[in-house]
Amino acid sequence: KKLKQLDMFVLDNSLRETTVASVYAHTIASKRAIYNEIKKCGFQYYFVESFTSDTRIGELFLEELISQKEDLSGAFGFADLWEKVVDGIPQPEPQVGLEKCKKFGINHVMLEFDLMYHKIDYNRFNMKKLCKFMEDRFKWIRANLSPESLILVNFRDFSSTLENEPARVWEVVRFLATLPPQERILGIAYEDLGKSIMDQMEVWTKAVRKEMDRCGWEAGQLLVHIHEQWGLGNATNLECLASGATGIWAGVCSEGAALGHADSCTTLLNLIRLGNTVVQERYNCKYLREAAINVTKITTGELPFKRTPIYGDRALDMVFGFIHSAMKDDPTTYDGFDIAKFLGVERTVRVTTMANGDMLCMKLHEVFGEDDQFNEEMGNAMKQQILVNAREGRREEYDSAAGLAILFDQAGGQLTPAMANAINESTENQPRIEALIAEVKVEWDKWDAADGSADDKIPFDNFYNGFMTPYFGCYRCEDTQQGLKALDMDDDGWIDWFEFKFYLVWAGRQ
User: Fold this and answer.
1) CA torsion angle for 319, 413, 509, 449 (degrees, to 10)?
2) Which contacts (CB < 8 Å, 24+ apart) does range 19-28 have?
3) Residue 326 and which of 156, 271, 338, 499 are 20 to 30 A apart at CA?
4) pTM
């Protein structure tokens, strides 16, 4: 019920989270591309940079935005609560992060700090002194950035402190929650590196939320950030939201430190599938999947891992026809929340040993268009052929255009020019396979010119001499003629390049 009604606050971190431990460094161009995706998602608040003494690429990007008079009223910057520790005591100077926020006109700040940093003597620099240090920073921000600055403080070692020194967290939370209303900040942020289990995060989140509310700080935001480590990231994230967290600070895709983090695309669409309509009014939720795909590609140079929930290539596949149709006869019917329907896209049938005849027929239409052969009878024959191939120990894939067409041929179908054209235009091949096909094309061109006309067509006898002689004993043998006819899809007595390439593509994918 809480997740269904949650008006979730999203502080987007796509510009920063995707740089952490990224193999490829961001450039101004990639920052700009990610920034545009953030805007399309409708996220009002977003991080632009984590400011340190180094000149990071985000600062150069900020200079570009400022020169273009970009509205930065929703921009946040990261800054350390303290940047120098002397003899176990944090020092008020320098404060490079905050000074850079002032320089670039970034009015909103997340102050990050640790309660178990090994260089700090917490007996001498106790929580009372830490809270006073924090209060002074709040005053500086409001005096130097804006009286209306939105301020968050992030418990960077939240989980470790609660396991070992929980009183420290309680003292800081109570201090923040009991500030005079006019001095209160936007809220508290916290993070877990993925080592804590859901039950721990649930209890800790409830405890912090309860203390905030007990002190009269019901309006205070409590934003969670969960790193992935043991496969529990997204579930833990939702558990925190159900336990009192009011929002997240996260990137739109999971790319980030180590194994990534619980991203906003996955979180928001989970809320929507549970019946939450509030977030749909606040954010452009129908664009989230596309944004997550785009930001992943901008960051890594590749598409998301195929089995990534929601925005992976296989996330919208129809795999189990009988489950999707539930108790109905229509295999296209989806039982429950249909993410494909919500996003306005078509589900793709995935051809596996679990596919039924209806699904195979749908796949033929999906990939190759309309043809009288693409009927339920053919779908069932293809299903049986998959089982025959498996029993014979043949591990073949059928989900690609080439694989599907070969299965169709094996099941007794007559290959169509449309099939060959679809495969000829396919970009599914690996570079190595493309290189091998290119080598074959060089040899093909020699035989193509042998009849005096380079038209990408070779008569049967020339094709036999050029490509089949090492494997077939004679031109007029039955096996040879069957092979030639299999290649001649349009029955014109010639082998076309696009017909031959069809089999080369299929062979390469095996």
Assistant:
1) -150
2) 20/256, 20/257, 21/256, 21/257, 21/258, 22/255, 22/299, 22/300, 23/300, 24/299, 24/300, 24/301, 25/57, 26/57, 26/299, 27/57, 28/57, 28/60, 28/61, 28/64
3) 271
4) 0.80
Question: How far apart are alpha carbons 100 and 97 in whole angstroms?
Answer: 5
Of residues 158 and 409, more confidently modeled = 158
DSSP string, 154-195: EETTHHHHHHH-HHHHHHHHHHHHTS-GGG--SEEEEEE-S-
Q: How far is CA 306 from the centre of its chain?
A: 9
Buried/exposed 83-93: b ≥16 CB within 10 Å, e otherwise: beeeeeebeee
How far does Cα 186 stand from its chain's mean position? 29
For residues 337 and 332, give the distance between their C-alpha atoms in angstroms, rounded to a whole number. 14
Residue 29: HSE in the Cβ half-sphere, 13 Å Cα cutoff: 1
Dist CA 473 CA 464 (whole Å): 10
Decide the pairing of beta strands 9-12 and 457-459: unpaired
Give the 3-state secondary structure of residue 151.
strand
Chain position carrying tokens 């608040």:
45
pLDDT for the residue numbered 428: 56
Strand, helix or coil for residue 481: helix
Mean pLDDT score, 154-168: 97
326 pLDDT more than 70: no
List the end-to-end C-alpha distance of the chain, in Å, as a whole number: 49
pLDDT for residue 76 is more than 70: yes
β-pair type (494-496, 457-459): antiparallel
Residues forming a β-bridge with 224: 190, 248
**pLDDT attached to residue 327:** 40
Nearest residue to 235 (alpha-carbon basis) of 206, 192, 276: 192
> Residue 328 has what pLDDT?
47
Helix (H, G, I), strand (E, B) or coil at 289: helix
Give the sign of the dihedral formed by CA 282, CA 287, CA 292, CA 297: negative
Say how far residue 316 (Cα) sits from the centre of its chain.
Answer: 13
Give strand pairing partners of 495.
Answer: 458
Q: For residue 135, with 0-12 CB atoms within 10 Å meaning exposed, 13-18 middle and 19 or more buried, which class applies? A: middle
356 vs 40, residue with greater confidence: 40
Cα gap 18→48, rounded to integer Å: 12
The rounded percent of the chain whose pLDDT value lies above 90 is 61
